[in-house]
Amino acid sequence: MGDLDGRVALVTGGSRGIGRGICLRLAEDGADIAINYHSNADAAREVAEEVRALGRRAEIFQADVAEEEDCKRLAQESLAAFGKVDILVNNAGIGATAVGRPHVAEAEPEAFYRLMAAHAFGPFYLCQALVPQMREQPRGDVVMVSSVAAQNFGATGGTYSAAKTAMEALAHTLAKEERQHNIHVNVVAPGLVETDMGLALVKFTRGVESMRELDQGQPFGRVGQPADIAAAVAFFCSPRSSYITNQRLTVSGG
Amino acid sequence: MAIDLTGRSAFVTGGSRGIGRAIALGLAEAGADVAVNYTRNSDAADATCEEIRALGRRAQAYQGDVSDFASCQQMVEAALADFGNFSILVNNGGIASRGNTVVDTDPAEMRRVVTTHAMGSYHMSRLLVPQMREQPRGDVVMISSVAAQGLNGRGGPYNMGKSAQEAVAYTLAKEERPHGIHVNVVAPGLVNTDMGRRLARATRGVEDIHELDDKSPFGRVCAPEDIADAVVFLCSEDAAYITGQRITVNGGGF
């Protein structure tokens, strides 16, 4: 018996990194998983195999969450395959490093649009598409995977921080609007995590080649892992948090 | 994923009734042995200990006033002799303030309330944290209140006590992280306890707190077990990379 038996989760950006960790953890806890990926179908297929090895259903769905039409299609395809989606994890994102970590004054508008679309608009489209059917379920959960960037607002991260902040505003608004339907909306904010995106970040900001060079200086002597973030997401979706909504939990080792 | 605290011992202040009792039972259900502190009601403390033993865990009640350092010393000395060590401390013991404005509050009341919440948490942390450093992991959880974020009128002493208690928590989190000690805050709103029922009578004029269910988040007043669930999570492996954080358990607020 898992905490999430009988539930269906759609995880955006579920093929790699934190998203992969979330897919595996929710599956361990009993949920079937709709795995969204953007470009790496092979990685998504591998995650699906890992989920199935845990005895859960898994399907993969290509979509660019920055695109409204893609989000609508992703929601429809997920619902057609699973019958419902009662957990939505908005995890997909793009690091500021992908747009060269510009200062705000120097950022190309296109870079800003791109990050805003992926982090804030995509979750908005998906919530619009999936929350109405969630109201018919005994319980619904939306978890936004944000970032400590939305509390630190570091220089050269403006494109990313602004997008994550807009995403959190969406979460806290939706939480109040949908509570009467027993839909819980919460935010998990990771710090540095050992993923491709995290590695690109520290190569840029700290000039290191491997995360292992950083372990010693990190909280609790290690860089955060996708499983650490996934555990917080699983907590928010579990019966343990049945009276918790509209909250934000930072998972950064303090 | 089932939470397993087997082999750990917890000290819960104010553990005989209300939220503290639920936390003591929640930790015991997860496998921990529990020392239950109480101030006056030894029958209630004994009853809670019996319930813990019925779960197959060790339990012992200790009388003591957390606002008095000498009393804490005696209590901790006795409890360490019985349990050997404590790797979990839950600073839950507290008292309500009388609902006067700051200007009309008796300074003695202010000192009593602040001393219980802030100094009590400090006393117990000072006594138990050093031996926690020798354990594989330590956890200190402070039970604060939404009062520390609402800071409403007529709550001066309580607001001051809880805010100072949280300041102890966030400072301690940074100081003890190198020793693998996690320090977090759980902030309940209105909960169905003796204190909560008195508050509901005083501020909303209801004789039965369940008259508030319909207007409450998720259609019910918060139960002590909701708070215990958050505490147990924070002490678990699932929260291994979480420290210095605050979880509000109030159903998203009124």
Layout of strands and helices, then pairs:
The complex is a heterodimer of chains A (254) and B (254).
Chain A: E1 8-11, H1 17-28, E2 32-37, H2 41-53, E3 58-62, H3 68-82, E4 87-90, H4 109-134, E5 140-145, H5 149-152, H6 158-178, E6 183-190, H7 196-206, H8 226-237, E7 248-251
Parallel strand pairs in A: 1-2, 1-4, 2-3, 4-5, 5-6, 6-7
Helix pairs in contact in A: 1-2, 1-8, 3-4, 4-6
Chain B: E1 9-12, H1 18-29, E2 33-38, H2 42-54, E3 59-63, H3 69-83, E4 88-91, H4 107-132, E5 138-143, H5 147-150, H6 156-176, E6 181-188, H7 194-204, H8 224-234, E7 246-249
Parallel strand pairs in B: 1-2, 1-4, 2-3, 4-5, 5-6, 6-7
Helix pairs in contact in B: 1-2, 1-8, 3-4, 4-6
Helix and strand pattern of chain A: EHEHEHEHEHHEHHE
Largest interface, by Cβ-Cβ below 8 angstroms: which chains and how many residues each? A-B, 33 and 30 residues
Number of helices of chain A: 8
Output the radius of gyration of chain B: 17 Å
What is the averaged pLDDT score of chain A? Answer: 95
The tally of beta strands of chain A, per DSSP, is 7
Q: Quaternary arrangement of the chains shown?
A: heterodimer
> Helicity level of chain B, as a percent range?
40-55%
Strand content of chain A: 5-15%
Counted by DSSP, the helix tally of chain B is: 8
Largest sheet of chain A: 7 strands, parallel
Distance between the termini of chain B: 31 Å
Overall mean pLDDT of chain B: 95
Low-confidence stretches of chain B: none
- The SS-based structural class of chain A is alpha/beta
Structural class of chain B: alpha/beta
Beta-strand content bin of chain B: 5-15%
| SSE order of chain B, one letter for each helix or strand | EHEHEHEHEHHEHHE
